[in-house]
From TrEMBL:
This is ATP phosphoribosyltransferase regulatory subunit. NCBIfam families: PRK12295.1-5. L-histidine binds at D65, F66, T67, R92, Q111, E115, R292, Y297, Y298. It comes from the Bacteria. Keywords: Glycosyltransferase, Transferase. The keyword Cell inner membrane does not apply.
């Protein structure tokens, strides 16, 4: 059992490292308005958030992470460029799928993090290198990905806008995404009279059902996605290799998949910038599907540092969330990238060294 003071000690050390990188320490409230946050978090966090009703404030939640409240604070008061750091508890219900004591994790734990708001094209590399320095000596594996690569690939498919939007909506849910891709690769089933009549029952209004039926009718007439496109997409999504090898393979993919070419060159430039900061790209794994099961506000570069413990979450994780900035900024978009470290897991690693 790791003492709380040991976790705090490590958290303060990490916080000092972020301050030394120019970050200003902030402390968002523990109890937050739930409405906006629940819309922004992915399904995993929404299902694990502690939500209750306050008689004055309405629906509120215990802080499940820092990024969204830090973004809200910055969009109200901050200028750019800006760097923030923080240390404090977050609260999440744990997965009930495995109740064995050895697999139990705390539902309240420390997060120490760093967020960078800047238009610098090398901001991703700066943040990754900062976390790499903070975590040296713990024998962690570094992995990166890029959600923009996957979304550009979907946008490049020869499908209708409606079908591409549907796939993009589920890109963070791999099983649903694959089922939908498989369905779009088969001829659409006809919508018979009995089908259309049946859809009028339920909670939707007649106007809503009219729109839905029109969409189904249009979808019925769309040709299936050619098998070669589904194969290309699956091969891309399954790419996993060291960074230099991944860039080589990605450039090969881009020859047949031109929509991803700009994202591929951005990935290559990022690894060049990381190398310029003293980190060998060959020591980093690039996984094209990295980030697909984490928070849905990551829409670009993603990264994790993991220990060789099968039942552990990442010791550190983060990524780029430009789209979140646009939503919370109400039209004022500032590029942003950041991440968190779990001091409690660092403390556990130190205890066995």
């Amino acid at each position: 059992m790791i003492a709380k003071r040991d976790k705090q000690r490590i958290g303060q050390r990490l916080l000092d490292g972020f301050r030394a990188a120019g970050a200003v320490e902030v402390a968002p409230d523990i109890l937050l308005p739930a409405e906006t946050l629940l819309d922004l978090y992915g399904e995993d966090i929404r299902a694990r958030a502690y939500v209750t009703i306050d008689p004055i404030r309405g629906e509120v939640m215990l802080r499940p992470d820092f990024t969204v409240p830090v973004v809200q604070m910055h969009m109200e008061h901050g200028a750019e460029p800006a760097r923030y750091c923080y240390l404090g508890e977050v609260f999440r219900k744990q997965d009930m799928g495995d109740l064995r004591p050895e697999n139990a994790r705390d539902n309240e734990y420390l997060q120490c993090g760093f967020e960078l708001f800047a238009r610098d094209p090398d901001a991703d590399a700066e943040v990754f290198a900062l976390f790499h320095r903070q975590l040296q000596g713990y024998d962690l594996s570094a992995e990166t990905g890029d959600m923009a690569l996957l979304m550009d690939a979907v946008r490049g498919l020869p499908l209708s806008t409606a079908r591409k939007d549907a796939l993009l909506h589920h890109v963070w849910r791999p099983r649903r995404f694959q089922r939908m891709l498989d369905r779009f690769s088969r001829p659409a089933r006809g919508l018979g009279l009995s089908d259309s009549q049946a859809t009028w029952s339920g909670l939707r209004s007649p106007e809503e059902m009219t729109v839905r039926i029109a969409r189904l009718m249009a979808d019925r007439d769309e040709p299936p996605l050619a098998a070669e496109w589904g194969d290309r997409l699956n091969q891309l999504f399954n790419l996993r290799a060291s960074a230099p090898e991944a860039v080589t393979q990605l450039r090969g993919f881009a020859e047949d998949f031109p929509a991803i070419a700009p994202a591929v060159e951005q990935i290559a430039s990022r690894f060049t910038a990381i190398a310029g900061l003293g980190i060998d790209p060959a020591s980093i794994i690039f996984d094209a599907s990295h980030g697909r099961t984490t928070m849905e506000y990551y829409d670009g570069f993603t990264f994790t540092f993991t220990a060789a413990r099968a039942d552990w979450p990442p010791v550190a994780s983060g990524g780029r969330y430009d789209a979140l900035m646009a939503v919370l900024g109400k039209g004022r978009a500032i590029p942003a990238v950041g991440g968190i470290i779990r001091p409690g897991l660092i403390a556990e690693l130190e205890a066995v060294q």
